[in-house]
Amino acid sequence: MDVSQVTSLASGLDNLDLKSQVNTLVLKKALDNQESAASNILASIPQLPANPAIGRNINTTA
User: What is the spatial distance between Cα 13 and Cα 8, in angstroms, rounded to a whole number?
Assistant: First the structure.
């Protein structure tokens, strides 16, 4: 194996590793953004009343 091939292979592997790390960081940022959005949606859901009989049943005979 020629020395230039070894250096070329090492450089290619370094580039592949860097791309993999960048892709992982982008994925982590996207997951963090989705987690934040989901938390905001869950926080915006109104709380149920203290009385368990209020707001959970529909009177269909009235």
Answer: 9
Hey, what amino acid is at 55?
A: G
End-to-end CA distance of the chain: 88
Q: Give φ, ψ of 2 to 5 degrees.
A: -75, 150
Rounded to whole angstroms, the Cα distance separating 18 from 5 reads 20
Tens of pLDDT along the chain (62 residues) come to 677 787 788 888 888 888 889 999 999 999 999 999 999 999 998 877 677 667 677 778 75
Alpha-helical (H) ranges within the chain are 3-44
